[in-house]
């Protein structure tokens, strides 16, 4: 008799499953929520709303998204203004042409010449367009010359050359010297209006390209006003000169001495840090290592300085500015994109940011002054 084979019951290994796929749902919700935030930011058309959102959030990624949304919103507004302006100019030109145009006469003549063997042919087309106003006081003449030259070679290929030139002239019949004076005055007024519009457009463009109107920009403006007051700047040059002389005579530090003292302070606090050599407020800060060294000196646990490299400029700026804002409550007066785009940053911007960082350290008691 053969022994019976007893089959062992198979034990099913049940892998633990999350109830109702909780983890996957949460991941999808996080992705959907971040995507929804980007879409919501792109739909906001009020810059003040984005400004308030930037003041309320403390997350670095959210601040970056809000700043990008503000840049895109400003660009859309500038494009819309340019488009509306072009439309208004086009409508004004059309109305002016419609009001001036009364009778239009157009004459076209064509002359063709062919070589004896038939291999080359030239064509000249002349078009004259005469526009006369309805009252007969203005006349405009436009002449357009089009020429084409075609030559066929022995192998069947052809060479085609075409040129086009146009010139126009206009005249106005004036009955007296007063009409000519009115024309000259209107031409001068139109030129003045054009120059004024160009100046306003340039001013508006410079204003649109400035930093956003947030609490950060307000703080920066306050710091610049403070620097001007400390430097003794005044609308009156004589008063400014008097103030500077009085300050030097009484031993009060002026703007240059404050700038040098702040530079010496930065040099002392970053002494011994690798890749840092502070000689000025511009090129010495271009790779972000000086910012990181200065912040790391006061907050060594904020990040690992040894892992930073001068080549990764964007990362250095992001680490320094975010760490200073998180640990010292120093607002990000400098934009990372602007710092990366510029080979050498503007020394006034760097100087203003370092002064703000110094002021925040004094408020936290990490730096002591003579008054404290």
From TrEMBL:
Low complexity: compositionally biased ranges: 104-115, 158-176
Record field: compositional bias (Polar residues): 116-147, 231-251
Organism from which the protein derives:
Tyrannus savana (Fork-tailed flycatcher)
Bias (Basic and acidic residues): 72-91, 194-206
Q: One Pfam family for this entry, by name?
A: Smoothelin
Q: Where is the Calponin-homology (CH) domain?
A: 256-362
Q: Which gene encodes it?
A: Smtn_0
Ordered alphabetically, the record's keywords are: Coiled coil, Phosphoprotein
Domain of life of the organism encoding this protein: Eukaryota
Q: Which family does it belong to?
A: Belongs to the smoothelin family.
Q: What is this protein called?
A: SMTN protein
- Start and end residues of each stretch annotated as Disordered: 1-26, 72-251
């Amino acid at each position: 008799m053969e022994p019976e084979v007893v089959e062992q019951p198979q034990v099913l290994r049940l892998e633990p499953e999350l109830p109702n796929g909780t983890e996957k749902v949460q991941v999808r919700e996080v992705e959907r929520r971040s995507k929804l935030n980007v879409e919501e930011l792109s739909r906001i058309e009020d810059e003040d709303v984005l400004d308030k959102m930037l003041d309320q959030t403390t997350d670095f990624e959210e601040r970056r998204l809000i700043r990008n949304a503000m840049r895109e919103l400003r660009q859309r507004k500038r494009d819309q203004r340019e488009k509306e302006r072009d439309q208004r100019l086009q409508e004004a030109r059309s109305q002016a042409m419609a009001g001036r145009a009364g009778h239009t006469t157009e004459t076209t003549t064509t002359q063709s010449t062919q070589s004896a063997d038939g291999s080359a042919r030239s064509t000249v087309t002349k078009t004259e367009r005469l526009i006369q106003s309805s009252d007969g006081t203005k006349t405009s003449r436009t002449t357009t010359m089009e020429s084409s030259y075609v030559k066929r070679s022995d192998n069947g290929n052809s060479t085609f050359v075409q040129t086009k030139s146009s010139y126009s002239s206009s005249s106005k019949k004036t009955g007296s010297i007063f009409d000519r004076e009115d024309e000259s005055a209107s031409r001068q007024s139109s030129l003045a209006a054009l120059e004024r519009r160009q100046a306003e457009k340039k001013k508006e463009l410079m204003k649109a390209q400035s930093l956003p109107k947030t609490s950060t920009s307000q703080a920066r403006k306050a710091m610049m006003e403070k620097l001007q007051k400390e430097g003794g700047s005044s609308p009156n040059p004589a008063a400014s000169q008097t103030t500077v002389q009085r300050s030097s005579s009484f031993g009060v530090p002026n703007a240059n001495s404050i700038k040098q003292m702040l530079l010496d302070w930065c040099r002392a606090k970053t002494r011994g840090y690798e890749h840092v050599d502070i000689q000025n407020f511009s090129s010495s800060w271009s790779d972000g290592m000086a910012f990181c060294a200065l912040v790391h000196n006061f907050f060594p646990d904020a990040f690992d300085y040894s892992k930073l490299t001068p080549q990764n400029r964007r990362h250095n700026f992001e680490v320094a500015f975010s760490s200073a804002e998180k640990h010292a409550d120093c607002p990000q007066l400098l934009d990372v994109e602007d710092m990366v785009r510029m080979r050498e940053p503007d020394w006034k911007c760097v100087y203003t940011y370092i002064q703000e960082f110094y002021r925040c350290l004094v408020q936290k008691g990490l730096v002591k002054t003579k008054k404290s």
